Amino acid sequence: MPALKAVLQSWASWNMVCDLYITDTTSNELIKIKNGIDYPNLHYDEKFNKISSVRFYGGVSIHFLSILDDSLQEQFNIDCWKEDTCECYEIINNQEVLRGFALRNYDCILPTIESLTPFKISDSCN
Fold this sequence. Notes:
By secondary structure, the protein is mainly beta. It has one domain (about 5-125). The protein has strands at about 5-10, 20-25, 30, 40-45, 50-55, 60-70, 70-80, 85-90, 95-105, 110-115, 120-125. The strands form three sheets. Strands 4-5-6-7-8-9 form a six-stranded antiparallel sheet, with no helix packed on it. It has a three-stranded antiparallel sheet with strand order 1-2-3, with no helix packed on it. β1 (about 5-10) and β2 (about 20-25) form a beta hairpin. The protein is elongated.
């Protein structure tokens, strides 16, 4: 599997959308991730060893992704759209399976996620 060295080419917006490239360390070539532009605000999350995408709208959605060949594959989706609740879904065979929910500190735009399985968030702000 190619290394997770990413080159992001982006333009400004609230939900920053990027072209995502990874480096194939064996051939030293860039590989464009086909659906990278579908996920805004990408960054690598060391804690979960995943690429994460954060969407801002009336609430917040956090997607945890892995690279499969030349595409991003969603593994977890956390929706914080109610005033005080976040719901965690695991994506299995392209279906969302509810794995848990947690109360959040509404003063925090982004909750601090402590674990995905079992789903747990912190009261502190990210």
